[in-house]
Every structure is written in structure tokens, then in C-alpha cells.
Structures
1.
Amino acid sequence: MPIKTFRGLLTDSVQQKIRLSTKDGKTGYRIIKLDIIPEAPIASDIEAVVKIFKITQSTATNTVDFSDGNLLGCAVWWGGTTGADDPQDWVQIFDREIFNQDIYVTGVFSGGTFKCNYYLELETINMTDNAAAVSTLRDIRLNPQVGG
């Protein structure tokens, strides 16, 4: 299946919407890659938490809760200028879940003064009428704003 890529630059505690929904809902997506790197990775000590959600978030946080059914993926970066702190990047993708609605990317960064780049690859999947309806209804139930 074709791959769609998205990239962006997040500021601290700001949410970005990635528009994926279609009129018929028959195009599904699955995360296959999520990478992050701060805008200035060796300028100073940096910690970043970037998360991807199925529904809009009221606030961006640096906590990660794997039991949150709306969390699709998470990446954490930490590193610094001392040389002893080698940059680290950790990525977790959940269950290769298929979704057919917009997704939301949030980022929280140490000190709140940094920006962080993200790169996201999504596999596109043709969905049957039934699968599209189930996915759309599930998303509407979780987030009433999806329908309106």
C-alpha cells in the first residue's frame, strides 16, 4: 500500500492536527514510523515528549499512559551538550491500529523554550464499507467533535 508522510515543527504544549478524514471514510491509515529531533539538538540539554492521538487533546502533557485508548504513538528524546548525554530517541507504536479520521500531534519540551521536528509515515489501507463505518462510529463515540 502507498505511504503518506507528514512532517512538522512543534512548539511547546501546542497541538497540530493532521487532516486524514475523507468523505466516504474508506481510506484507513496505520502508523509505520515516528521520528523526532529537536530543532537545535545539541544547543542545550533537551527533553521532548511527542505523542499522537486519535482525538483532540485539551492540554499537551509530558506523561505517557499506555492504557489511554486514544494514544496511537509516542516518541521521547533526551540529550545534551555535555558529551556525556548522547542523544536518545525512543519510539513506541501501538498495535498497528487502523484509523480513518484526523489525528493530533502534541509536544512538551523541557524548559518550554525548544521546538521539535516530527516525521510521521502512515500506511494507507483501503477499507470495506463495514470497516470504514465501524472505525468512523468508534471515533465519533470517542470524540463527538469528529462528527461536527
Note: The chain is about 10% helix and 45% strand.
2.
Amino acid sequence: MTATLPESVREVFARFITTEYTTVDRRGRPITWPVTPYYADGGEHIDVTTGLGYPKKAEDARANPKVALLFSDPTGSGIGDPPMVLVQGTATVDDADLDANRERYWRESTAKLPGMADMHPPAFIRSLFNWYYTRIYVHVRPERVFVWPGGDVTSEPELYDSHMEEVRSGHDEEPDVPLAPPSGGEPAWDERIGELGRTHRDAVLSIVAPDGFPFSARVGVRADAGERLIRIAEEPAGMPLRPGPACVTAHVHDETFSWQRNFQVRGDLVEDSGGWAVVPRRLVGGFELPKSRLAAWRENLGKIRRFRRTAKRELARRR
């Protein structure tokens, strides 16, 4: 369906260097990470990818193909005043030819992220990084596309959908599915949550909509340390907010993606006298690239060891 979308939307798919990709895990909870999108104009799907050493992004999509891609951070795209775009789609996991995937990723990532070229290891030791360069692709076929012109999350989004009756009515007519209940328990706090509202004035809020598709939007956020809550500044138009599992994802990168930082907070969306908020249950740090190469090695060495073990196990399982 992408060929029929406005050119401004297709340009976002092609030129953004990050998209916030959301899967629904086996517990029915939304999990959102920033990834790089790959898109050919008019194509049937938008592709994202993950390393063999950390395959959860693909395995969750294999178990539940209802996923979402939010295009909300234009850094590095070169587009002025782009819309915010949410794609709810059906995922297909592509790991049949890992060698071909590795070559494709090497070719496409270098073209899309030239700032990372100097960070690639020399060819003669590249095999030591197969946990990263051996890729699993996820093809996301759009089923429904929401567009907030100018990125104004409080304005009513434009809806483009393969189901024409939904386009005409402006409402989702998919049947509701059972949703996971809030996890409950005591809030979990971390010093990085305190960055919300300071270092990160906004972040991506993700929930699972009544039809089972993830729904994400970039919103203003503020850490409320006294109440142990992440306050949501505004209610996104078109987002079916209701108490239940939620994910808040913060990430930042430079124009060339030579460095990037990210983390997510998994928790429960609640409503109180102050409006909507997320009770944090767990903070999860992503695979990050600090500005300093020495810091990158120091921070990621333990993760790299774990990713190598996972990649070895994944290769053995496939054999």
C-alpha cells in the first residue's frame, strides 16, 4: 500500500535514519527500540533488522506479527518540518539466508549511515563481529498509517488504511483482542529515569491498542521522582489510552549516527489527578555507542560477550 501514500510520507520512510520499532512480547507487553529503516519507494514493506546476537526483536515478531514503526525523530534526515508517522503493520521474519542478509546489511547500512563507515572493523577481523553483522531482517507490511502533520501529536491524525471502511469512518473496526493486565507491584526507579524531562524532553510512549497492534507516539515527558512516575505531558490525538502495560523509550543520536544513546522503561500506564503517567517497573539499557570509542568498548564489552554466545547458540540451532 505504500505506493498510494503521499510523497511526504514516503520520503519520511526513505530518509529517516531511525524509526521506533515496537513488538508485543509473549506477556502481551509493548517493547520499543530505535532501529534503522530500509525502504524502496513504492515498496510493499519497510524493513528493519537486528543482529544474530540479539534476536529478540525478530523472535517477538515471529511469535506475534502485529508490530509498529513510529517515525518521530528526523535527526539526520535532512527533512524540514516532517510529519510524525505511525505504521501499524504485519511482520515477516527473514532469516533463511543469513549470508545474503549479512552482505545486504553491509551494503545498505554503509550507504544509509556513512558516518559509521570509519567505525567498521577491518575486513580481516570482521568475522569476530558476526554476532552483529549477521542479520535477521523483519519485513513490515503496512496495514494502517497515521500521519500527524508537522509532528503535532495533539492534532487529529490523518489515517491511511487498507480497509476502506476504516478510512471513511476514521475509526478502527478491527475486533478487540484480550490485552495483558497491568503488572502491578512497587515502582522501580533508576537514575536514568531522572533524565526524562531534562536530557530527554520528549520520548516515545508505546501501548497495545484494543485490536492488538502496538500504538506509539512521541510525547513530552517528565520524571516525577516524588511519586515515582513518568508524567506524560499531552494526550496524543488518536491514541487509545487505557490503563495497562506501556513502554517509554528515549534515544538520541547525531546527524551521522556516529554516536547514539538509548534506553527504555517498561511499566504500566495509569491515570490520576495529574493526568496520564507510567509507573516504571524496569529500566533496560540498549546497545549504545558513546562519543568516545574507548567508552564504547568499556560500556559494551560485557554485552558483546553475551551477544557472541547468543549468536553461536543461534547458529547451532539453525544447523
Note: The chain has six helices and 13 strands.
3.
Amino acid sequence: MSDADVHINFNAPAILRKAPSMNKERISSATAYTVVEGTLDECIRQFTSKPISQHHLYDIHTTAQGEMITEVMSAKQISELVRLRDFL
């Protein structure tokens, strides 16, 4: 599949969540909390507005869309999507 074949619905419902942290590391036993609930686009914009040093504490929950968009997107996946977005 080429980039031209990839279609992502940036208007899909999504939730940006942040994991509680201690010493800049996730607390694995703690429940992540909602930062913003809106569209995938809104969640991506909010994610990119956060300090890069804290990106690893965030993930986006949305409806899966093929291989690129999974139900829970890690900071690494979100950053890759941001990088590729201009080409999609």
C-alpha cells in the first residue's frame, strides 16, 4: 500500500490521556486521566503542544483505522503520524 492509498479520518472521535508520573516516569499502577476528548485532529494538536520531554506520558485512544491508527496510539506512533501527516 502506498501513501496515496492511506486515508485517515482525523475527525474520528478520540481521547488524549496522560499517565500519572513520578520523576518523569509513568506510574504503572496508576490510571491515566483524560486531557481532552474530541477528534483525532484535536487530540494530536493538544499532544504536540505538550513539552517533548513529557510526550512519553501521553497516548491517544480512538477507533482503529488500518495498520497506522490503532485503538491506543503511543507517543511514538503519534509522533510518526505527525511527521507523515503532510504527506497523507
Note: Strands lie at 13-18, 21-22, 25-26, 33-39, 58-62, 72-73.
